[in-house]
Amino acid sequence: MSDDDRLSQIDTLWSMVYRAHAEDRSDQSQAQHQLLARYGSAIQCYLRGAMRDTIAADDAYQEFAVKFLRGDFKTADEQKGRFRSFLKVILGRIVADHYRRLIRRPISQLDSTVQVPDNRDATSDDERAFQSIWRDQMLTEAWSRLAAEEQATGKPWMTLLRLRVENPDCRSQELASLLAEHAGEPFNVSRLRVQLHRSREKFANYLIDAIADTLRTNSVEEIEAELSELELLQYCQGVLEKRKRDAEPED
After folding, report:
1. Is the dihedral of CA 47, 11, 195, 178 positive or negative?
2. 209 vs 29: CA distance, rounded Å
3. Residue-wise over 187-198: b if at least 16 C-beta within 10 A, else e?
4. What is the C-alpha to C-alpha distance for residues 194 and 213, in angstroms, rounded to an integer?
5. d(CA 177, CA 240)
6. Element (H, E) at 149
7. What's the predicted TM-score (pTM) here?
8. What are the C-alpha distances in Å from 25 to residues 20, 71, 103, 126?
9. Closest alpha carbon to 87 in 138, 39, 48, 45
10. By the 8 A CB rule, do 243 and 174 touch?
11. What angle do CA 169, 172, 174 make, to 5 degrees?
């Protein structure tokens, strides 16, 4: 499958959001659980950081899950922007409601350790925190997809990249020996370099696809803008440029 075909066949998160609120109960349940499984940890991480209270954050996550499963977000409109922005608005409201409830409590019931964020800086700090967590989520998604391909094919795509990341100072021969030990088959330096190049290329494609899943369009330019905003462009600049060239109309 070409990169252009890959982009055109992406099942976006917006379509999953719509299926999660569809009348077909079996399809609805599957989509709901897919979304929560994929992004639940990122949502929990953000809520814990924003609320600075693990118990309250866990309660807030349960509130989000209940609202989601109940169908409260069925009016979501993909034309209003990225899935990341859509999710950020929802979580931002949950966090804001949490602090409003704190402020409304009688003073005698307030825990002196609770810190209500300064509204002057809360928006920018909140956005940076969410962006950092979302960035990590996109990287995790790419790693997961690469690991799934490794499991399906038996090719050590993810293992090789992980070894390179964990051993940045290893020479090629040493890395080949480590890979051979993990893969249970011999790897010479030449084969290692070919595999490493392909592993990086595959990871880049999966990262681009993970980003594309969260957008309302498959436009390579918009994918590039999102990658740049999340500071992920360094991981896939070459592959993205190739996709741009492939997407250009022939003369």
Report:
1. positive
2. 24
3. beeeebeebbee
4. 29
5. 32
6. helix 119-153
7. 0.72
8. 9, 12, 40, 35
9. 39
10. no
11. 75
Residue recorded with tokens 């949490």: 98
Q: pLDDT per residue over 198-242, tens digit each?
A: 999 999 999 999 998 888 677 889 999 999 999 999 999 999 998
Q: Give every CB contact of residue 204 below 8 A, 6+ residues apart in sequence.
A: 235, 236, 238, 239, 240
Give me 156's structure tokens.
């050590």
As given in the structure block, the two tokens for residue 197 are: 């190049």
Residue type, 8: S
**3-class SS shares of the chain: helix, strand, coil, % to 5:** 75, 0, 25
For the chain, what's the residue count? 251
Q: Compute how many other C-beta atoms are within 10 angstroms of the C-beta atom of residue 7.
A: 19
Alpha carbon distances (Å) from 65 to 14, 56, 82: 17, 14, 20
Residue-wise pLDDT tens digits, 56-87: 888 888 888 877 777 676 555 545 557 788 78
